Amino acid sequence: MAARSDSVHPGIIAFIANQFDMRNDLLSSWTNASKLPGLLEGAIMDQPSCERAQTNKASYACATNSNCANASYGGYTCHCNNDQPNPYLSEGCEPPQDYNPEPKEQCLRSCGNMSIPFPFGLEDGCFGNEWFQLNCTAGNTLFSPGVGQYRVISVSVEDGTLTVSNVLNNASSVKEMVVANTDEHGDSYIEGPVEDVFDFSMEYDIVIRWAITNSTCQKAKQNITSYACRSVYSSCHDVTHGVIFMGYRCNCSSGYKGNPYVLDGCQDIDECLAPNSCNGICQNTPGSYKCTPCPHGKEFDSTKSRCAISTKRWNLLLGTAIGTGCGLGSIVIALGVIVLANKWRKGIQKRIRRAYFKKNQGLLLEQLISDESATSKTKIFSLEELDKATNNFDATRVLGRGGHGTVYKGILSDQRVVAIKKSKIVEQMEIDQFINEVAILSQIIHRNVVKLFGCCLEDEVPLLVYEFISNGTLYELLHMDTTVKCLLSWDDRLRIAVEAAGALAYLHSAASIPIFHRDVKSSNILLDDNYTTKISDFGASRSLSLDETHVVTIVQGTFGYLDPEYYHTGQLTEKSDVYSFGVILVELLTRKKPIFINDLGAKQSLSYYFVEGLQEGSLVRILDSQVLEEADQEEINEIASLTDACLRTKGGERPTMKEVDMRLQFLRTKRLRKRQCLHEKDGDIEPLLCPEAKNPHKHMNIDNDAHITHQGMSGCYSLEQEFASSLFGMPR
Fold first, then answer.
1. Got the DSSP string for 252-311?
2. Do 514 and 644 have their domain in common?
3. Is residue 566 in a domain?
4. For 570-617, how does the pLDDT look when each residue is reduced to its tens digit (9 = 90+)?
5. Across 121-241, where does the E strand assignment appear?
6. Could you tell me if 517 and 490 lie in one domain?
7. What are phi and psi of 306, to 5 degrees?
8. Angstrom distance (rounded) from CA 705 to CA 725
9. How far is residue 36 from each of residues 179, 196, 241, 258, 730, measured CA to CA in Å?
10. Are residues 709 and 640 in the same domain?
11. Whether residue 680 sits in one domain with residue 580
12. What confidence tens digit (pLDDT) does each residue in 66-118 have?
């Protein structure tokens, strides 16, 4: 057992031999093809491991700059990183030498037939440091680790190995050679002196594993000037021998090969030239390769390493082509059959529609409307056009349903929005009369009557196409939302009544042939974008010749609005519409439905309820509160008197629609004159409608019919002047 130069370690030393002068951090193991004899090993035993020993600096045996390794049998051993012979000396091991990653230019890189890659070199400045210095003598590359010289067989920078053979030193030096049993990895390594172990006249190979300076990759990367891995495509990894840390070594990245210790030393590997798993077209890429499957119709031929059409594939393609051809032929035949069937079906539909057109007297209608002007000419629509306009009469397009049919919203090809009424089944005897009425209605041009654009006669029942009215019905405004007051001021109610009465009076007396609506009700009074009144739904209307005063028909109408005389006799006259209009006036006064639930929970007729209240003198009790607030007593009495006249049981006692129209215009003109007089006297007047902030429909204004004075006139007319103005001066 060797003693330390200054003091002996106090721990128990099992056995320590003289150290072989070898750089343990570079040369980690020797592997011989022959079997080597065993050697007794030693370790410091006062602590079980390096970790425990390093906690007590006073008893820690390893010198400065030395490495500590745990022994497999317990304790620990010390190793220098350089030529220092004893890692247990107090002055410590010498620090590792610096590494130069950039050799000088024009270095000799071969000796005989052997290539000498960097970091190894033969000349000063051509190797990384002196550990990697080799000598070239007589064409042989020699390695001199300190105790002798060895002939270098090969140098590998990829595996980090140096293979040597043929020990060339003298016998005395050979006796200093140290060899031990193989470690847990199966490698032999230098540990202590053994005499007469080898016959050096025999040839054998020794594989020496080496590493760059004794530093980890993490620390080495911090000093880029001495960092050994110079190639862009290189990587660093730490190297150990058993439990002994050696340093770090460089390798080319995956997909590259060459020397990672020089710039551009790692070159891309062409994987397509080497055996690979690509069964298709191989394309080399930096560090890898891309495999593209063989084109359609070809397969990979492993014997030729290329894509080719195989016989089996060819037969399959041929069979596929035949099958595809047969399938396409079948599809073409099927499509042909479908096209012919559609044409046959469309032909049948066309004949059916033509038959309906003739049955619905379409030829007669064409003659009746042939003389109309081009601008107002009623159009006869095709069923196909109306199908497209209503999306095949989709249920989501339904605007409403009534006793005479269903109304759909449609968009024509010219982007006009229309209401399309699809009537219920009618008797053949009514078709002629229907056509005559369509011809008459198409000629009605009145601002308060819904415009009839045309009809379609290609369906089982005729279809009527009207202009679309966007703001709903008077019934909805009165009864669907009772909180709406702003749009139902007393002035608005008077205006709506005047406009509706004017339209009905026009139908009764001003049209070329008198037309009785026969279904006058608040749900048939529509309001357009400007809340202008529009009379609609002439499905039950009847026309009379000029010498007729009434017509006997099947009783049609809506309960609550139905004329009791017409109900009992079946005789339809213009006074029937007057009675129904009287019910609308009561709705405007009371804001109650024509059939409503009274205080006792029973159904009651609004017309009888009004007449009864008028007779009992309790009119104020049944009127809408807003009417009582905005109308004066004189106005209420006048319109109540007119309503009572319209609701008389006998039709002969009722006024005509023209008389109703005149009295309503007179009443409204009188109210407007009175408000204008107040304005001239007081200089201010309440707005006729609600304030703009409370009225979302500010365009709904009575000023349409309020221009009753000329420019420059002032003062108030007398009642006689107002009456004359209402009869002759009011615009229609």
1. EPTTEEE-TTSTT-EEE--TTTS--S--EEEEEETTEEEEEEPPTT-EEETTTTEEE--H
2. yes
3. yes
4. 777 888 899 999 999 999 999 999 998 888 888 888 999 999 989 888
5. 135-137, 140-143, 150-156, 161-167, 205-209, 234-241
6. yes
7. -155, 170
8. 12
9. 7, 11, 19, 34, 134
10. no
11. no
12. 778 888 778 888 877 555 567 777 666 766 567 889 898 889 999 988 999 99
pTM of the model: 0.48
Q: How many domains does the chain have?
A: 3
Catalytic residue at 528?
Answer: no
369 and 502 housed in the same domain:
no
Domain hosting 694: range is 671-729
At position 612, the amino acid (one-letter code) is E
* Token output for 699: 């365009």
CA distances to 85, 189, 519, 545, 629 from 509, in Å? 137, 130, 18, 12, 36
Contact between 140 and 112 under an 8 Å Cβ cutoff? The reply is: yes
| Residue from 268, 491, 519, 577 carrying the catalytic annotation | 519
* 540 within domain boundaries: yes
CATH number of the CATH domain containing 557: 1.10.510.10
Which run of H or E residues covers position 244? strand 244-252
Q: Are residues 428 and 475 in the same domain?
A: no
Count of CB atoms situated within 10 Å of the CB of 389: 22
Query: Which portions of the chain are predicted below pLDDT 70?
Result: 1-41, 81-85, 90-92, 94-97, 146-147, 166-204, 297, 302, 310-311, 313, 368-377, 402-404, 425-434, 436-437, 440, 481-487, 510-512, 538-557, 679-732
463 within domain boundaries: yes
Q: What is the DSSP letter of 465?
A: E
The DSSP output letter for 177 is -
**One domain for residues 451 and 484:** no
Residue 356's CB is within 10 A of a number of other CB atoms, namely 18
Shared domain for 494 and 580, answered yes or no, is yes
Cis? peptide before 119, omega within 30° of 0: yes
Task: State the pLDDT at residue 97.
Answer: 64
Domain's final residue, options 651, 668, 685: 668
**Does 422 show up as a binding residue in the annotation?**
yes
